[in-house]
Amino acid sequence: MGPTSGLNLDGQHDHIRDTVIPTFLHFNLPLMTAGWIAAMVL
């Protein structure tokens, strides 16, 4: 059980739209941007 397992108690939680997309936008995009910049600097 993950940290978002309780979000579906109301039956309206869409895992992809409510969990995966915000996580991707707020974690992966800055991570990839920083990695790309570091690769260009090195």
Automatic annotation (TrEMBL):
Keywords, A to Z, come to: Cell membrane, Membrane, Transmembrane, Transmembrane helix
The subcellular location is: Cell membrane
Q: Keyword Transmembrane helix on this protein?
A: yes
This entry carries the following GO cellular component terms, namely: plasma membrane
Regions crossing the membrane: 20-41
Supply the Pfam families for this chain: Na_H_antiporter
Query: What does the record say about its membrane topology?
Result: Multi-pass membrane protein
Listed InterPro entries: AA_Transporter-Related, Na/H_Antiport_NhaC-like_C
Q: Does the keyword Membrane apply?
A: yes
Show where the Na+/H+ antiporter NhaC-like C-terminal domain sits: 2-36
PANTHER family per record: AMINO ACID TRANSPORTER YUIF-RELATED (PTHR37821:SF1)
Name this protein carries in UniProt: Na+/H+ antiporter NhaC-like C-terminal domain-containing protein
| Organism of derivation | Chromobacterium violaceum
